[in-house]
């Protein structure tokens, strides 16, 4: 899977500007770590059409017929690499590698959206807005979403006691599905209306999804 990382977005996330004294060193380090990170990630995108969860998360979901569950992950090695840099007191490397991983995960979410939309079109399905645990639905729903995707526990993804995904560089969400309808792609996330005003990946442009 070819995953592009938006360098400008990563530098914005770590609040690094071109006139910063640290820019030259960080830019050089970024180029080095961008090559390294591809050897310590195992990107996966999994989606699964199934029965709905018995939860109250909005009328659009309650009125839908089924659910489409999605999980993305970079695997566990990237988190181990970041931790190693921290343990070796290589804090800048750890910081930049972590931002790179977040940027890669951000790109994977966009790739997964393209996969999901193509699947929906092929199967004549319309989708609700993206329902993300900890964002617009309760964080606790990460557990049943993962269980729908991986009922036998075959994936190397777990839920912590705090309902976080492990490996850390992973994401899970779902859509309500209306069968026999055309896909409406206008339900995509608009950063300008998002309640996460301090999101480091936030953009004010209509065309960018965060």
UniProtKB/TrEMBL annotation:
InterPro entries membership: VitB12-dep_Met_synth_activ_sf
SUPFAM superfamilies (UniProt xref): Methionine synthase activation domain-like
Example GO molecular function: methionine synthase activity
Protein source organism: Natronincola ferrireducens
The name this protein goes by in its record: Vitamin B12 dependent methionine synthase, activation domain
């Amino acid at each position: 899977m070819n995953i592009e990382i938006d360098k400008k977005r990563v530098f914005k996330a770590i609040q690094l500007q071109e006139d910063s004294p640290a820019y030259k060193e960080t830019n050089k380090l970024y180029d080095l770590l961008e090559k390294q990170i591809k050897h310590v990630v195992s990107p996966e995108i999994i989606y699964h059409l199934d029965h709905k969860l018995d939860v109250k998360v909005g009328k659009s979901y309650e009125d839908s017929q089924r659910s489409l569950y999605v999980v993305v992950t970079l695997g566990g090695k990237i988190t181990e690499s970041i931790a190693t840099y921290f343990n070796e007191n290589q804090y800048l490397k750890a910081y930049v590698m972590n931002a790179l991983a977040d940027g890669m995960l951000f790109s994977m979410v966009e790739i997964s959206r393209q996969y999901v939309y193509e699947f929906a079109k092929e199967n004549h399905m319309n989708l609700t807005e993206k329902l993300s645990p900890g964002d617009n639905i309760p964080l606790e729903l990460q557990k049943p979403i993962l269980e729908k995707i991986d009922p036998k526990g075959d994936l190397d993804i777990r839920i912590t006691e705090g309902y976080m995904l492990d490996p850390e560089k992973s994401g899970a969400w779902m859509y309500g599905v209306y069968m026999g309808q055309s896909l409406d792609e206008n339900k995509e996330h608009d950063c300008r209306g998002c309640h996460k005003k301090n999101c480091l990946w936030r953009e004010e442009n209509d065309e960018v999804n965060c």
